[in-house]
Write a structure and sequence with these properties.
The structure holds 2 protein chains of 2 kinds.
Chain A (H helix, E strand, L loop, with lengths): L8 E4 L5 E6 L9 E5 L6 E4 L13 E6 L2 E6 L8 E9 L2 E4 L3 E5 L1
Parallel strand pairs in A: 1-9
Antiparallel strand pairs in A: 2-6, 3-4, 3-7, 5-6, 7-8, 7-9
Chain B lengths: L2 E5 L2 E3 L5 E8 L8 E6 L5 E7 L7 E2 L7 E6 L4 E6 L8 E8 L7 E4 L3 E5 L2
Parallel strand pairs in B: 2-11
Antiparallel strand pairs in B: 1-3, 3-8, 4-5, 4-9, 5-6, 7-8, 9-10, 9-11
Classes of the chains: A mainly beta, B mainly beta.
Chain lengths: ~110, ~120
């Protein structure tokens, strides 16, 4: 089965840039999206089709996808960005989620 | 306001059955592909099932295939998940989610979830 490993945790200082990676075989040939989930809340879509932001998502969230790695980048990270982040793609007609990364803003 | 609201969760014994519902509002439900996704407490998101707007060609994760059935009633704007032969490992929060209409399977609207606890 297709897997999407993510680092379990990433730490960043306020105002700095956070990068969260998602790996998969030939992942760059697929579309990737990213979700943010804060404690006790439902996931929120923050990036779709590798690089696009849904309406209402701040410009500091950006994405890229090439080769075997997709990356979610948060520029000028704020305390409110502390959350779990999940990547997701699809294989055939099934969706696959990454294991999730806990972003801590120190 | 675009909204999804799950219901039907609860405590059930191993081997038992449960039917989850997801009421949609604020958008054209009959045109939207829909998903169920689950999350074990403290763990990650796991995709469960998907149904097209017209209700056929459903797909399932291997872990639930043959036990769970996804369905929908477009006249009632409601998505369902019939869960049979439940196991302890099915214990989770179950979310319904709308797939965006871009053909790339991102889930752009999520409900608040309903909790299923499989335990004797």
């Amino acid at each position: 089965s297709y897997e999407l490993p993510q680092p379990p945790s990433v730490s960043v200082s306020p105002g700095q840039t956070a990068s969260i990676t998602c790996s998969g075989d030939k992942l760059g040939d697929k579309y990737v999206c990213w979700y943010q989930q804060k404690p006790g809340q439902s996931p929120v879509l923050v990036i779709y089709q590798d690089t696009k932001r849904p309406s209402g998502i701040p410009e500091r969230f950006s994405g890229s996808n090439s080769g075997n790695t997709a990356t979610l980048t948060i520029s000028g990270t704020q305390a409110m960005d502390e959350a779990d982040y999940y990547c997701q793609t699809w294989v055939g007609s099934t969706a696959v989620f990454g294991g999730g990364t806990k972003l801590t803003v120190l | 306001e675009v909204q999804l609201m799950e219901s039907g969760g609860g405590l059930v014994q191993p081997g038992g059955s449960l039917r989850l519902s997801c009421a949609a509002s604020g958008f054209t439900f009959s045109s939207s592909w829909m998903h169920w996704v689950r999350q074990t407490p403290g763990k990650g998101l796991v995709w469960v099932s998907r149904i097209p707007s017209h209700g056929s060609s459903t797909t399932y994760a291997d872990s639930v295939k043959g036990r769970f059935t996804i369905s929908r009633d477009n006249g009632k704007n409601t998505l369902y998940l019939q869960m049979n032969s439940l196991r302890a490992e099915d214990t989770a929060v179950y979310y319904c989610a709308r797939e965006g209409n871009r053909g790339t399977m991102e889930m752009d609207v999520w409900g608040k979830g309903t909790t299923v606890n499989v335990s004797s």
